[in-house]
Amino acid sequence: MNPVDTTLPAHSTVRGLASPHHWTRRIPVYILVLLFCITTAFPVYWMIVAVFQPIEYSLQYPPPFFPVSIQFDVFNEIFSEQDAARRIDIWILNSVVLAGITTIVCTGLSILGAFALSGRRWRGQGAFGLLLLTTQMLPEALIVIPLYATIDRLHLKDSLFVLALVDTAFVLPICIWILKNVFDTIPTEIRDAALVDGCTRMKMLWKIMLPISAPGLVAVGVVAFFHAWNEYLFAASLISDRKLYTASVGLGSMISMIDTPVDKLMAGGLMFSIFPVIFYLLVQRYIVAGLSAGAVKG
Q1: In the chain, how long is the greatest CA-to-CA distance?
Q2: Angstrom distance (rounded) from CA 130 to CA 116
Q3: How far is residue 162's CA from residue 238's CA, in Å, rounded to a whole number?
Q4: Taking a C-beta distance cutoff of 8 angstroms, is the pair 187, 298 a contact?
Q5: From CA 75, how far away is CA 51, in angstroms rounded?
Q6: CA of 135: how far to CAs of 129, 151, 170, 171, 236, in Å?
């Protein structure tokens, strides 16, 4: 009986053992990724540099790419502005209120809409879901004029709550579909067991489905929050009282053809960017779990 030959052919390699120079073939990819990261991060870096160094250095040509000196006077100026209508902290507070209302209203309506689409079948369910998607094809600029005319005739301008409802109307369809995919992953056996035990459909939604779908709820809330936080067109059209400006509109109002305070604008932009970044870092893991929940149906 011939012994079994356990040697490998000369051209074969063991998985996990590669040439010591295999990584050199990826050098072009690494360079492209590095260039992309630098290009993406440079505007943020330059904003920080322009904030913390004297403005005369930022406006000279060529400007220094590293801070010549560090100062914090610009933050004292933007937060100690005597006119409350021009203070960045008031604008940021308005943005927080607007984003908070939009998040709460959108999340509540998304729960009901997603439950209707993910529950038992009813006539017109597919057409309703398709109609929700078609609303995303309409750009905001297309309806801002008729929307402005309607709100102005109803005397509802200069209201953060009305603006939050408008923002909710635009982000709600995509939030419903995100949450629907999450609800679809819940096995029907769990729903049927809850109904057999005496739960009503709304109690089943509240006691069973929502705790299981917590990551999806967080994802929907984050999508709604960022939409309201960054929205500019409706906020600029429906809010004329400077004390009710959101941060995006307030920072835009600082830009003029005659005199644009670059240092204050950069400092305001930095403050405007910090809050959503911190918020995103706090809920990042829930966002990934929520957005990927519908990828594989349970």
Answers
A1: 98
A2: 14
A3: 9
A4: yes
A5: 9
A6: 10, 20, 8, 10, 22
C-alpha to C-alpha distance for 158 and 179, rounded to whole angstroms: 31
- Six token digits for residue 112: 């009901």
Contacts of 91 (CB under 8 A, 6+ apart): 245, 246, 247, 249, 250, 251, 268
Which class for 77: exposed (0-12), middle (13-18), buried (19 or more C-beta within 10 A)? middle
Looking at residue 254, what is its pLDDT?
Answer: 82
* Average model confidence (pLDDT) across the chain: 80
CATH of 84-291 given 3.40.190.10, 3.40.50.300, 1.10.3720.10, 3.90.1150.10: 1.10.3720.10
User: What distance in Å separates the CA atoms of residue 48 and residue 266, rounded to the nearest whole number?
Assistant: 8
In this predicted model, what pLDDT tens digit does every residue of 15-45 receive, in sequence order?
444 555 666 778 888 889 999 988 988 888 8
Tell me where in the chain the CATH 1.10.3720.10 domain(s) lie.
84-291
* Tens-place pLDDT, residues 38-79: 898 888 888 888 888 887 777 778 878 887 778 777 777 777
Q: Are 232 and 255 in contact (CB under 8 A)?
A: no
C-alpha 68/C-alpha 70 separation (Å) is 7
Task: Identify which has the larger pLDDT, 277 or 229.
Answer: 229
Say whether 198 sits in a helix, a strand or coil: coil
Q: Which burial class, exposed, middle or buried, applies to 132 when counting CB atoms under 10 A from its CB (0-12, 13-18, 19+)?
A: middle
Judge contact between 164 and 101, C-beta under 8 A.
Answer: yes
